[in-house]
């Protein structure tokens, strides 16, 4: 019996690994087919040399083909590390891979992520942690990749200098990432974005003290709408179709996902299976596509990054019911602010701001809308504290928004799950008292009957 259970788990794990690899190779093949070999090489070299701090659209820098190839190779590195360290391919693994893939369209490249990963590995060796236990700090921690390229090419420290500072940043990623989780209590899905923001803030301001400055940029593509929109639709539709093929009851079981609030850690692969999770990922991606289309935004490297990240976390906390209120909140905020709803900042805030989905899932859509509304204001200005070195800028902003709302909501009302738990407790106590009352009553009747008999 135990052997058969192990075999079933192995088959499920391999199936998930195969699906993830399929999509990595699909992006790689698409990239290789779009431009000539010479153009791909030149484009990749441009990507390797660009600082990559926010916002840098690799499609503008190198073209769609090299950007896709870079994205696939970065994701493949994460995939191989998970395989080598025998980390189970659950929702968290899927989210990590597709987040890496997405941000390799606007800030990460094949070489700039390696020092961060190496730093986390060295930390594990020094503290006797298995790398497999802290690997997600390494994968998500590649948010600080611009720190490596900025040091190497802008500060003039060369490749070696960039590698050294990347390793140093990676070495403190795991302890900081573990610590900040308590700050927002799991209501910010991009937890490492908050950690990377703090680390980026420290490094950025220390560097400024010695005359090394960096600023956010705005390299934003406007000519890729047709191609990237078509790619996104095919990509997300294929996920839904694959989910249905893998699990014929996938749609039937979808309600299990929609019932989840999505707080860390909510792993949809473990809850409902791979098939249903893929369906959810595809639907979450389509919600993002619809949002961009409805507000008249551009489809380019950064927005495809937002879609990839949303879709990836469709396996690890996000679903249409808990992300739409956040997006509505961001959209509403643009009507009463200085920002255009389809300009780069607000558009990305609408996509990446869905990291606050657990607030909506736990406390209801009204809180989600308010959180999204507040998020736009915070994320629009917080990037200056790290100079664009933290690619997960929305994760940093969302950490503060989540902590703010958690403090208010918990101080003014109880969430549904807490109320249900307290109701069950009261009901249990009532039954206990009722049982004791019946026992006492029965004993009283028995005593009276004995007294009557004696008389």
Number of strands: 0
The unreliable regions are: none
Helical fraction equals over 70%
Helical run tally: 22
Globally, the shape reads globular
Integer tally of domains: 3
**Helix/strand order:** HHHHHHHHHHHHHHHHHHHHHH
Structural class: mainly alpha
What Rg do the Cα atoms give?
Answer: 25 Å
First-to-last CA distance: 67 Å
Describe the biggest sheet? none
Q: State mean pLDDT (0 to 100 scale).
A: 92
Residues in β-strands, percent: under 5%
Describe this structure in words.
The protein folds into three domains: 208 residues, no CATH class; 171 residues, no CATH class; 41 residues. With 455 residues, the chain is an all-alpha fold.
Helix and strand topology:
Layout: H1 2-34, H2 37-49, H3 58-62, H4 64-84, H5 91-103, H6 114-127, H7 131-140, H8 145-154, H9 158-171, H10 173-184, H11 191-209, H12 225-246, H13 255-258, H14 268-272, H15 274-295, H16 301-312, H17 320-335, H18 344-352, H19 357-363, H20 365-382, H21 393-412, H22 416-454
Helix pairs in contact: 1-4, 2-4, 4-5, 5-16, 6-7, 6-9, 8-9, 10-11, 11-21, 12-15, 15-16, 15-17, 16-18, 17-18, 17-19, 17-20, 18-20, 19-20, 20-21
Q: Which keywords apply here?
A:
single chain, 455 residues, mainly alpha, 3 domains, 22 helices, globular
